[in-house]
Amino acid sequence: MLLQVCLAAILAVTVTAESVSHQQGQSHLFECDYPISADTYVINWYKDGTSVMNYLSGGEPAFTEDLDDRTDVQFVNNRNLEITNLRVSDEGEYYCSVIEIGAGGQSGDGTRYQLVVFVPPTITLMGGPYEVEVGEMMMSTCRANSHPPSNFTWTLPNGNVTQGAVLEITNMTQAEIGTYMCTADNGYGTDYESVDITMTGYAAPPMTTESAPPVGGSDVMRATGLPVILLYIASLLLPVVIS
Ligand SMILES: *[C@@H]1O[C@H](CO)[C@@H](O)[C@H](O)[C@H]1NC(C)=O
Ligand SMILES: *[C@@H]1O[C@H](CO)[C@@H](O)[C@H](O)[C@H]1NC(C)=O
Ligand SMILES: *[C@@H]1O[C@H](CO)[C@@H](O)[C@H](O)[C@H]1NC(C)=O
């Protein structure tokens, strides 16, 4: 018995709201499920504790505050609230409050709804340069139009994953060229965007999910290429120096 009273008290204090989520631009019908038995009654719809709609039975609904001047809100069946073109700013807790007028009239609230209006991420990459030289620094920042905000990860050409929106390589080596992929995830959607980092004279290895050895041969050619060219230039200069 005592336990039941305690449970009832806990339930009454922690009024939990029903979660509702929609993508921006979609519609939602909030139902006022408080049972109305009187002929004359007042309904208020509240958003985050502020009345946004007021209705006296037989009259016209008056939309106020956040719902003032909105062409995309309707009062349906003299009790329910519908928003047909949801905006991120519509997020909040909604509930109806009913006051019955006349003898024996009751008052009470309907179910509370916690509305989330989400925007799946769309990535924009900024930064560079994406064609680099050995020893150069490059940076790319991943941004996303997203609500709620996204978490970002970068997948490196060797398959390693780093957390965070910023990719920064301070001292480019040939082993680091390749395809880098940014992932944005906000729990309601995911977007991917890749950037190819190239190095003059080198081909990027294909993206792998495991560590791959550097492309064979290139280092050797690079290492022997320079002395050969110097030797060639020296041989051209030699006759001039002698004469
Ligand atoms: C990839 O990540 C592992 C584990 O964090 C690390 O030991 C390794 O050095 C990384 N490889 C490269 C090429 O950065
Ligand atoms: C960049 O890397 C090269 C090769 O590993 C090294 O010789 C050089 O000192 C590094 N430069 C800086 C600024 O760290
Ligand atoms: C984003 O990262 C934070 C901190 O690691 C984590 O609490 C949250 O759940 C993540 N959100 C998504 C959508 O992955």
Automatic annotation (TrEMBL):
SMART domains: IG, IGc2. The chain crosses the membrane at residues 223-242. It is a single-pass type I membrane protein. It is found in: Membrane. Residues 1-17 form the signal peptide. The keyword Transmembrane applies. Residues 11-98, 121-198 form the Ig-like domain. The keyword Amino-acid biosynthesis does not apply. GO terms for biological process: cell-cell adhesion. GO terms for molecular function: cell adhesion molecule binding. GO terms for cellular component: cell-cell junction; plasma membrane. This is Hemicentin-1-like isoform X1. Keywords: Disulfide bond, Glycoprotein, Immunoglobulin domain, Membrane, Signal, Transmembrane, Transmembrane helix. The lineage of its organism: Eukaryota, Metazoa, Chordata, Cephalochordata, Leptocardii. Pfam families: Ig_3 (PF13927), V-set (PF07686). PROSITE patterns: IG_LIKE.
